[in-house]
Every structure is written in structure tokens, then in C-alpha cells.
């Protein structure tokens, strides 16, 4: 089996797991989104530290941590990344557990186009006319939904924008994927621990020797495994293929929202998704074409 085929399987596995992640959060829909987030931060950190020890990267991790805390710019960048991804996580959990899986799906369809826009504004990247048309279709889709429903799809935009900001920070502050998640969660873990202790003091916490306790501990695995698969896949396959595979996750979410969770999929949703899909097709086509020219 070729490296590219192995990489494709890794990346597909990551996006398929991300797509089905709403099923996991639904198991804990009776638990506060903020409590789930706090446990997700704590157990993700624990899982990553165990993994770092198992793969014998502890010294490298400690050296990386020392470099970061001695570099204020890098430290604040990683801290910002940790806060932003935590907000993205809690918004996603809230959306799933409050019957907004379609909004979550919409957000992750919009995200690549928001990232393009951020690249233009903050990284001075320049785009072709086709890429601008793709962005215009995405914004047209959001505007159409806002106009017809009378309200902005805040959950979708929040997920798209927060993940785009996270990606922008990660682009500027380069860090190993395994170390990155461990350090990001390490920085926000004091807040998570204080919140968990507070819930325990007022006797409303959900961590116990029960199914709820296992689900909360499992959030670390649910967070880290897809990320590790993605890291292994992304370094083996072309960027254009990564761009194509990333739409597996929101497509699975869309199907779950409509067919399993019975969320309303109106004609307004249909037209909004079609406009965004057109934008994504144009964007993907232009990216593949540019990649072939460079190759």
C-alpha cells in the first residue's frame, strides 16, 4: 500500500470520526455544555500526556514547553489558540445538544471560505477571481438564511469564524500537532479544574463512577484520536486532497441532523446549502487547478 493511500485512509478516518462526533455528545446532552467542555480539556490533556510518554517524546515536550514560556509572543499565541478552540468546542457541543446539528454542519462548510478571507486580510494572500466568487456564494448563502429566517445563524458563523481564527493562529505559531494540543489544553486547564471543583462543591457535578463519568472521561479520547489520525494523514497526502476530504465531516453531520435527529430541513436550508456548496466546488476546483500548475 502506497504512502498516499495510507494517508488518505488516516485522513478519511479523522473526518468520518469528526462527522459522527455529534452521536457522542448526544450521550451527554443532559449535562451542561460548559461542564462537558471542562472535562474535555482535562481529559484531552491527560490523554495527550500519556501518549507523549508512551511514544517517548517527554523530553522533547518539556523542551518545547520551556521554549514557549520563554517566548512571550509564542506563549500568548498558544494561549489564544487554547481559548479559541475551547470556545469552538463548547459552541459545537451546545449546538449538537440543543438540536442545531444543521447549524454545526453549515458552520464547517463555511469555515474553509472564512479561512480564505482571513488569509487575504491578515496574511496578505492574493486570490483569483474564481476564489472571490466562491467566497461571494458562501456569504450569499448566509445572507439568504438571515433574510428569510429574520436572524443571523450565530451558531454556524461562530463555529466557522472561531475555527478559522484558530487555524490562523496555528499558521502563525507553528507547533507539532501532538505537543500543540497538549500545551493548548495545559494553558486552559486551570480554568477547567476550578470550574469542576466549583461544581463538586455545590454538588451538581456529573463526574462519578457511572456511565456519565465514563462519557466525560472519554471526551479526551474523542478529541485526541481524530486529531492524531488527521496529523498522520495530512503529512502523507497532497493539500488539495485534504481540502476535498474535509467535507466528509459536515456532510455526515448534515445527514445525521436530517435523518437521525429529525431537525427541520426547509427550502431555505436547501437554498443556503446549495449556495455554499457551489462556493466550495468553485474553491476546490481552483485549488486543485493551482496545485496541478505548481506540480
TrEMBL record:
<dbReference type="InterPro" id="IPR000620">
    <property type="entry name" value="EamA_dom"/>
</dbReference>
<keyword id="KW-1133">Transmembrane helix</keyword>
<feature type="transmembrane region" description="Helical">
    <location>
        <begin position="7"/>
        <end position="25"/>
    </location>
</feature>
<dbReference type="GO" id="GO:0005886">
    <property type="term" value="C:plasma membrane"/>
</dbReference>
<feature type="transmembrane region" description="Helical">
    <location>
        <begin position="106"/>
        <end position="123"/>
    </location>
</feature>
<feature type="transmembrane region" description="Helical">
    <location>
        <begin position="75"/>
        <end position="94"/>
    </location>
</feature>
<feature type="transmembrane region" description="Helical">
    <location>
        <begin position="204"/>
        <end position="229"/>
    </location>
</feature>
<feature type="transmembrane region" description="Helical">
    <location>
        <begin position="37"/>
        <end position="55"/>
    </location>
</feature>
<comment type="similarity">
    <text>Belongs to the EamA transporter family.</text>
</comment>
<feature type="transmembrane region" description="Helical">
    <location>
        <begin position="241"/>
        <end position="261"/>
    </location>
</feature>
<keyword id="KW-0812">Transmembrane</keyword>
<protein>
    <submittedName>
        <fullName>Chloramphenicol-sensitive protein RarD</fullName>
    </submittedName>
</protein>
<keyword id="KW-0472">Membrane</keyword>
<keyword id="KW-0813">Transport</keyword>
<feature type="domain" description="EamA">
    <location>
        <begin position="155"/>
        <end position="284"/>
    </location>
</feature>
<feature type="transmembrane region" description="Helical">
    <location>
        <begin position="153"/>
        <end position="169"/>
    </location>
</feature>
<dbReference type="Pfam" id="PF00892">
    <property type="entry name" value="EamA"/>
</dbReference>
<keyword id="KW-1003">Cell membrane</keyword>
<feature type="transmembrane region" description="Helical">
    <location>
        <begin position="267"/>
        <end position="285"/>
    </location>
</feature>
<feature type="transmembrane region" description="Helical">
    <location>
        <begin position="176"/>
        <end position="198"/>
    </location>
</feature>
<dbReference type="InterPro" id="IPR037185">
    <property type="entry name" value="EmrE-like"/>
</dbReference>
<dbReference type="InterPro" id="IPR004626">
    <property type="entry name" value="RarD"/>
</dbReference>
<feature type="transmembrane region" description="Helical">
    <location>
        <begin position="130"/>
        <end position="147"/>
    </location>
</feature>
<feature type="domain" description="EamA">
    <location>
        <begin position="6"/>
        <end position="146"/>
    </location>
</feature>
Amino acid at each position: 500500500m502506497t504512502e498516499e493511500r495510507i494517508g488518505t485512509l488516516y485522513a478519511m478516518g479523522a473526518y468520518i470520526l469528526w462527522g459522527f462526533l455529534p452521536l457522542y455528545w448526544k450521550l451527554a446532552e443532559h449535562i451542561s455544555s460548559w461542564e462537558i467542555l471542562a472535562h474535555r480539556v482535562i481529559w484531552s490533556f491527560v490523554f495527550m500526556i500519556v501518549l507523549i510518554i508512551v511514544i517517548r517524546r517527554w523530553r522533547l515536550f518539556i523542551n518545547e514547553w520551556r521554549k514557549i514560556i520563554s517566548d512571550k509572543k509564542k506563549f500568548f499565541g498558544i494561549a489564544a489558540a487554547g481559548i479559541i478552540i475551547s470556545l469552538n468546542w463548547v459552541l459545537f457541543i451546545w449546538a449538537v445538544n440543543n438540536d442545531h446539528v444543521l447549524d454545526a454542519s453549515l458552520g464547517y462548510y463555511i469555515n474553509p471560505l472564512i479561512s480564505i478571507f482571513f488569509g487575504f486580510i491578515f496574511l496578505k494572500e492574493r486570490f483569483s477571481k474564481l476564489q472571490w466568487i466562491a467566497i461571494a456564494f458562501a456569504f450569499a448563502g448566509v445572507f439568504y438564511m438571515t433574510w428569510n429566517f429574520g436572524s443571523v445563524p450565530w451558531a454556524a458563523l461562530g463555529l466557522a469564524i472561531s475555527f478559522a481564527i484558530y487555524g490562523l493562529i496555528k499558521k502563525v505559531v507553528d507547533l507539532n500537532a501532538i505537543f500543540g494540543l497538549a500545551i493548548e489544553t495545559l494553558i486552559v486547564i486551570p480554568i477547567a479544574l476550578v470550574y469542576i471543583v466549583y461544581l463538586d462543591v455545590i454538588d451538581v457535578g456529573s463526574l462519578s463512577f457511572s456511565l456519565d463519568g465514563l462519557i466525560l472521561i472519554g471526551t479526551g479520547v474523542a478529541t485526541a484520536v481524530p486529531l492524531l489520525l488527521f496529523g498522520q494523514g495530512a503529512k502523507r497526502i497532497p493539500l488539495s486532497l485534504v481540502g476535498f476530504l474535509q467535507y466528509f465531516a459536515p456532510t455526515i453531520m448534515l445527514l445525521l441532523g436530517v435523518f437521525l435527529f429529525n431537525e427541520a430541513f426547509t427550502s431555505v436550508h436547501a437554498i443556503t446549502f446549495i449556495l455554499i456548496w457551489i462556493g466550495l466546488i468553485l474553491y476546490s476546483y481552483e485549488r486543485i487547478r493551482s496545485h496541478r500548475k505548481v506540480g
